[in-house]
Amino acid sequence: MRFDTVPMPPTVDSRPRDTRGYPVPAITPWQGDEPQFALTDYGRSADCARGRLCSVCNTLMPRGPVWRVVGAAESDAIGAALAAGRPYRNLAPTLEGPGHRACMLYASMVCPYLARPNARRGLSADRPDEMTEHVVRGAVRGAMGAVVGFGDYEYAVTDSQVLFRFLDVVEFLPHDTADAHLDELKAELDRLAGN
Ligand SMILES: [Zn+2]
Fold it and tell me: 183 CA distance to ligand 1 centroid (A)?
């Protein structure tokens, strides 16, 4: 969805913008004036991990659950585990750090890069046009991925990567359309504003 049709969490609103006006996530590297949305910045990601900062808005995440946007494969695996009544544990570490619930709901609708499987977020460039098309096209229930709340997470800062591992699914919100979480985001922002 266009970013200006989705209500923006206040902490996202105060992020730097690209030339189109898109807010730039905390973990996104810059090349001059151009944010590299397809990539994850090592130093910025390490800062977020060590400081318990949201990977989208760069502000503190309170104790308790954290959220992230997962791609289709992980969404399927979580959905299957929950349906079978067994715990899901993401044993494969991911480069994608956690964030606030509101930030991840927002990102799931606005930032197509965050809705892709882990594999595409290495250090090489992607094909954004193809990727965006894929996100817009999703039709099967949950086929695009999910916003998932986790009870806890671990991280490791290696020489070249910042790796995260997520434990204990506490919320599972699959999405199959680009605006799937609009009502949920509005409700979350109302809740945060004390309305
Ligand atoms: Zn945030």
Answer: 18
CA of 50 to the centre of ligand 1 (A): 15
DSSP the chain: --GGGSPPPHHHHTS-B-TT-PBPPTT--EETTEE-TTS--HHHHHHHHHHTB-TTT-SBPPSS-EEEEE-HHHHHHHHHHHHTT---B--S-BS---B-HHHHHHHHHH-GGGGS-GGGGSSS---HHHHHHHHHH--STTTTEEEEEEEEEEEEE-SS-EEEEEEEEEEEEEESSTTTTHHHHHHHHHHHTT-
User: 72 alpha carbon to ligand 1 midpoint, in Å?
Assistant: 22
pTM of the predicted model, to two decimals?
A: 0.84
pLDDT for 179 equals 82
pLDDT digits (tens, 9 = 90+) for 59-112: 999 999 999 999 888 888 899 999 999 888 766 788 999 999 999 999 998 876
pLDDT tens-digit series, residues 158-195: 999 999 999 899 999 998 877 889 999 999 999 999 97
Tokens for 150, please give them.
Answer: 């986790």
114 Cα to the center of ligand 1, angstroms: 14
For ligand 1, the distance from its centroid to the CA atom of residue 59, given in whole angstroms, is 6
The alpha carbon of 46 and the centre of ligand 1 are apart by a number of angstroms equal to 16
